[in-house]
Fold this protein.
Amino acid sequence: MISADPSKVTAICFDRIHHPNQHKLEVARANGAYKLLPKVLKEFSSEKIIEEVKTAGIRGRGGAGFPTGLKWSFVPRNTGKPIYLMCNADEGEPGTFKDRDIMRFDPHLLIEGMIMAGFALGVRDAYIYIRGEFLHEANVLNAAIEEAYAANLLGEHILGTDFSMNLTVHRGAGAYICGEETALIESVEGKAGRPRFKPPFPAVEGFYRCPTVVNNVETLSTIPAILEFGGAWHASIGVANNTGMKIFSVSGQVNKPGNYEVPLGTSLKTLIEEHCGGLQHGSLPKAVIPGGSSSPWLTAEHYDIPLTFDDLAKAGSMLGSGAIIVMDETADVLAVTRRLAHFYAHESCGQCTPCREGTGWLERVLVRIENGQGLPGDIAVLEDAAQYMAGRTICALADGAAAPVMSLIKHFPEAVRAGIVEKAA
Amino acid sequence: MSSAENPIFSEARLAEIKSVVERYPAAQSALLPVLHMAQEDFGYLSMPVQQLVADTLAVRLMAVREVVTFYTMFREQPCGKYLMEVCTNAGCMLNGANELAAHVCETLGINMGETTPDGLFTVTEVECAGACAGAPVVQINNEYHEKVDAAHMDAFIADARGQGGAA
């Protein structure tokens, strides 16, 4: 049960996740799912819902941290075009694995959140864009959606009201870039996932050029609790401007990797030592990737940092999707960077030259350094390439590719220099 | 008989495709779902299969080609009966994925990306599978195997061989 007292809340999205068979409608309902939905559809106005979500202060849980209520308020309501809702369940950022648990264990929470969001936004057709590899999760979602249709929670005249909404699961097919919202939209249009220029933003011109809201799984799954207990309740969890609970996916060299839902503002050290059973080796991390592989690295210097969007930004990094990859004293930081460079080179969609060429350069130079065949001047080559990619492309993939390389050079220059041959033979 | 070289969708599949198309504003949106179905039905997306998908959805072949070549899950070549996809990205790498991948390749006597001569196993390296708490992760025919060690893979391989490749 989620406590009405914000100081006693221990979980929101994961509150019911450990109940056996929670993915079945009957069990989910017995545990409180869809309890509030009739009241929302019959008594709440669209404005009231959007106002509550704004008051809640929730920022997007997918990576960008944009305020959800504000995003919703950008949707023009009088264009005569349909308005679409897309749930971003691409979960492609290396290190992120939280949405998978919501979808496979408590799919009705997400569905209920989407019905409420869809009602607030005037949506007729909603989609869940799930990464293609999550076949099991897609099957669980489809079974749950089928049950919801049969119970008149989806489809025509939901629960006897004037509100009708369809929900469709759309599987991706292995492309990291489709987690970027405009690439995601292209993908649901049946095209290669190449990000679009912004503006126009999807809220104004998205799916088939109609207003489209794209929200992360965790964000949408928080909506039922916000509407049940109120925006002010949510706003008093966490810290100012960084409100609510957040699921952190912790992986790498910790003893108990996993998903942990804690209030925003919990320190990195508390999360690793009290929840994750500490590091595999030693007492201080060598490096921590705090917000998915695209976020600049932290070192032991920031071990006490409160995990919030703002604190991470102040430290030169980002909270991202809350995916924390921990490297202990035994980690080969050069090898990790080279592996991430390979990832970005593989996943670059190729439409912007700085990214298409730059990601390949970064990988090739790092490979030769790792092989002990780096050339004098290679550090400058890496810095140049990273610097000229970041911020010069349509989407942020290039920035993400540059981040680990810049972090490596900044924090571990000796690891890079060790692979450089000082003088050509 | 319908095959990757001479593909025909069954009546049941065509009905399913029709209902999928109805869920979108335009038929091209059904391209990814239908390609997944085609790959399931025919094993891989040969040119005749891609032409069939284009004809079924009334989209240009080039639109199909562009999608097939963009997304890594779509295969234009047949693979082994057991497709083993080893994640070697950061979280898995920090938990022994490279050593695991090398072990599997050595056990099977093939290089990364190859298929065993008996057509049973293909091993490929994939990007982050989104299950990093279970590192290292290996997907075998779309099923996640987590916290995998060499013994687990050895047992799986022995079992698959013992069954003479029956899935």
User: Anything to note?
Assistant: Chain A touches chain B through 56 residues (CB under 8 Å).
